[in-house]
Amino acid sequence: MSDSGLLQQLSYTKAYRKNRLDAAHWVIVHPETFGELLTYCLTAKDELSYKAAWVLEFVYLEKPELLLPHLNLFFEKLPTITRDQTLRPLAHICELITISYYKKKEEKIGSYFSEAYKKIMVECCFDWLITDKKIACQARAMTALFYLGTEFEWIHSELKQIIEQNIHLGSAGYKARGKNTIKQINTFQKKRRVN
Fold it and tell me: What is the pTM of this model?
């Protein structure tokens, strides 16, 4: 049992945005508890895992550099997470990592986002797309895979095929993100052919 105070921060009873944000700000003020938060998120088997994941998402949005030294644990455990409430914020973090790395070309992430982590992310994102995951998780996976596909050429054809197979069955959100992702792939491939 931890005496850091983090468990108290995660003991909110209602998942209001304010409660999650307050807990995230507490972690940012107490960065020494970040490893503990990540451990709860990735290893807890009860509601603590998704409460920690919700807070982790907000912490990452404000202070992404807190996660970077812990990417090894993040990517080691990512394939083992199956609960939708925990996966949704983790998928968002994966999407944000790829945007920072590929689109924004942020140097701080460049030295951390290794080839091995990219491969794990690719596997997880494809798994989320071909299994019965919630749309939020699948939409984040589409975006992450689009950016990963700018480095690994084979990803775009696989991603496009999966989206085209499932788009007619998908929700409005799936259809919107799927159409946008296919459009991005087509635009990228045209530019690549020109160059």
Answer: 0.95
- From the list 171, 189, 96, the residue with the least C-alpha distance to 134 is 171
Determine the residue type at 94: C
Contact residues for 186 (Cβ-Cβ < 8 A; gap 6+)? none
Burial 25-36 (b: 16+ CB within 10 A, else e): bbbeeeeebbeb
Determine the Cα–Cα distance for residues 53 and 49; give it in Å rounded to an integer: 6
Q: Determine the Cα–Cα distance for residues 111 and 12; give it in Å rounded to an integer.
A: 36
pLDDT > 80? residue 52:
yes
Q: Please check whether residue 136 is in contact with residue 150, taking contact to mean a CB–CB distance below 8 angstroms.
A: no
The whole-number average pLDDT for the span 56-79 is 97
pLDDT at 1: 42
How far from the centroid of its chain's Cα atoms is residue 132's Cα? 17
Structure tokens belonging to residue 169: 């069955």
